[in-house]
Specification:
Blueprint (H helix, E strand, L loop, with lengths): L1 E2 L2 E2 L26 E2 L6 E6 L3 E7 L4 H6 L9 E6 L9 E7 L3 E7 L7 E10 L8 E10 L10 E2 L4 E6 L6 E4 L4 E2 L8 H4 L16 E8 L8 E4 L2 E4 L8 E11 L6 E11 L5 E3 L10 E3 L6 E4 L6 E3 L7 E7 L6 E3 L4 E4 L8 E13 L4 E14 L33 H6 L18
Parallel strand pairs: 4-10, 12-19, 21-28
Antiparallel strand pairs: 1-2, 3-4, 5-8, 6-9, 7-8, 9-10, 11-14, 13-17, 15-18, 16-17, 18-19, 20-23, 22-26, 24-27, 25-26, 27-28
């Protein structure tokens, strides 16, 4: 400014202070977990093996509230450290649910060594390290895990296969193997380890017993010829129409599974009926194999009932070749595949003779020939050896010296001749008179 040719420069000096409100801002306090008076801090409780998420809202601070902008002090960051010395810990992490709005603490442990109470604190920091921080104290209480047997894994049994045939003489059986617990699965998590725990609290263990409760053909019902008793399958088919490979679906029930265990590792390979032997007819006995010489009718020996039988009774058409082994002489002759005739009027034929019926039966379906035989003995009896002569009386005879006297008597008969109405079968009669006394 100027006055009467003089210039003046007036001035006023003063200080201007620029204040950073974030240096003195106050972060709104909050708690984590359940606060039980007289405690001033909260507690988070969980079991080993669990994952617990605890949400909290981003706290406001006074500087931001004053100007209506919570971002003026920079981004808010969070860390969880040990309360005793501020050192790092690994049990709790902080994750953002919604930026600048909501966050959560995620607590997790898979180790029984972490059981107990951990004194922790959440440190809330603003954009610069010189700004005030908020410390939120809380305890993390980790309890022993609860036993959960459902966490066990099962090992399916190795595949089983039964090969059998239709009409098996003794039905084949198969004992079904059970699924077993995978030993490695007993140590995977705190919850399953709790079941087998040996230290306090000692675990209750898991009942690893399984029971087979159902067996069906996969995609169908179980055929009637396959039956089950407990773990044992019995296959007793009687028809070649059943032949195929059956895949069976086996259901296990356990003591703790929500759903039964089902596997299809059992197969039944049913094949056509196979002849194992040719059963010969039984040897005849007694009167069936005895014939008398001079008998009125020949003796017929018939082995056709039951004849040679397939074992098992597959019902196949066989080509039979029958052979009779009989003695020479013509008094035993073959009259059919299963029959022979015994007939003789010759005393010298008496005796016991070995006779045998042999059959070789071929099944064209396999080309296999089955052989068997029925040996027996035929007895040819000479009835004259046991015949009984008919008694008769000779009258007393008186005769004078020098004279001749005669009398007649009927020819003596015998029982053998009478039986067949042939008076001479035992030969001509001869008569001799003896003195009684000598």
């Amino acid at each position: 400014m100027s006055y009467q040719s003089q210039s003046f420069l007036p001035s006023v000096e003063f200080d201007v202070t620029v204040t950073d409100p974030c240096l003195t801002t106050t972060i709104t306090e909050f708690t984590i977990g359940t606060v039980t008076p007289p405690a001033s801090h909260g507690v988070l409780t969980q079991k080993a093996g669990q994952v617990i998420e605890t949400e909290f809202d981003e706290p406001k601070h006074s500087a931001g509230t004053a100007v209506g902008d919570q971002s003026i002090c920079g981004a808010v960051t969070y860390s969880v450290v040990k309360r005793s010395d501020g050192s790092a810990q690994t049990l709790v992490t902080v994750k953002t649910v919604q930026a600048n709005t909501k966050h959560k603490l995620v607590s997790e442990t898979q180790q029984e060594a972490d059981e107990g109470t951990h004194e922790l604190k959440l440190v809330v920091s603003l954009g610069q390290n010189t700004y005030p921080k908020l410390t939120v104290n809380f305890d993390l209480k980790i309890e022993p895990a609860a036993c959960d047997c459902k966490l066990l894994n099962w090992i399916m049994p190795q595949p089983q296969s039964l090969i059998t045939t239709v009409k098996k003489e003794v039905s084949d059986t198969l004992t079904i193997k059970h699924a077993t617990v995978d030993p490695a699965s007993k140590n995977t998590t705190p919850m399953i380890r709790a079941c087998y725990r040996q230290t306090n609290p000692v675990g209750p263990g898991c009942d690893e017993t399984t029971a087979i409760t159902k067996v069906i053909e996969k995609g169908a019902t179980l055929p009637a010829f396959i039956t089950r008793s407990g773990d044992v399958l019995t296959v007793a088919s009687t028809s070649n129409s059943d032949v195929k490979v059956y895949t069976l679906e086996v259901t296990h029930s356990t003591k703790f599974e929500d759903a039964p265990i089902v596997f299809d590792t059992v197969k039944v390979d049913l094949r056509v009926c196979v002849i194992t032997n040719l059963d010969a007819p039984p040897a005849p006995t007694g009167a069936q194999i005895e014939q008398k010489i001079f008998a009125k009718t020949p003796l017929t020996i018939d082995l056709s009932n039951p004849g040679f039988k397939q074992r098992p009774a597959c019902g196949y058409v066989l080509t039979n070749t029958f052979t009779w082994e009989i003695p020479q002489g013509g008094f035993i002759t073959k009259t059919g595949d299963y029959t022979i005739k015994v007939e003789s009027e010759t005393a010298s034929h008496r005796g016991v003779y070995d006779v045998k019926l042999i059959n070789s039966a071929n099944y064209a379906g396999t080309g296999v020939t089955y052989s068997n035989e029925t040996p027996f003995k035929v007895t040819v009896i000479d009835p004259c050896l046991t015949t009984t002569l008919t008694d008769f009386n000779v009258p007393d005879v008186s005769i004078e010296a020098g004279l001749t006297n005669t009398f007649e008597f009927a020819e003596v008969t015998d029982s053998a001749a009478t039986a067949v109405s042939k008076p001479t079968i035992c030969g001509a009669r001869t008569y001799t008179v003896y003195k009684i006394n000598d």
